[in-house]
Design brief:
Blueprint (H helix, E strand, L loop, with lengths): L1 H6 L5 H9 L4 H16 L3 H46 L6 H10 L4 H9 L5 H9 L5 H29 L1
Helix pairs in contact: 3-4, 4-7, 4-8, 6-8
Amino acid sequence: MVAYFIFGDDVSTETLRQSIRDFGIWAPFLFIALYIVGTIFIPSTPFMVLAGFLFGFKYGIIYSLIGGSVSSILVFEISRKLGQPWVERTLQHKYLKILKKYNERLGSGAIWDLVILRVAPIMPFNILNMLMGVSRIHIKDYAVGTVFGLIPSIILTVYVGVIIAKII
C-alpha cells in the first residue's frame, strides 16, 4: 500500500499482491513477524489495514489477531519484568489507595475489564499493554481479554483494507 502511494500508477495492487505471493508459505509468517515488531513502536491500525489489503478479510483477521496478540503479550511481559516492582512500591503511598484497590481487583479476575478497555477507544493499545503489565492481572486473564478485546477493532480495520483493495 505504501508502495502504491509512493510509486502511484507504476505499481498495481495486483503487482503488490503477487510480490506477497512470491514469498509463498512464508508470506503470513513474514507479515506476522513485521506486525509484532512494528506494533511495539507504532499503532497497529496500519498493519490491520495492510492485512486486509494483502490477504483479504478472513486471513487478514487471522494474521492480525495473531500478530496483535503476540505483540501485546510481548509488551505486557517486558513491562511486567521492568516495571511491576516499582509500581507495587509506589502504590503503597496513602494517596494512591484507590489505584491500589483497583490493582488488587485486577489480580482477582479482570478479563471483562480488559475487553472493555480494548474495545473502548480510551487509550492506545501499547499504553494499555504497559499499564496491564505493571498491574496484578494474571497473564491468562490478560491473554483472553486481549484476544476478545482485539476482535472488534480488527474486524472493522481489516475490512477497511479489503475495501481499499477493491477501490484501487
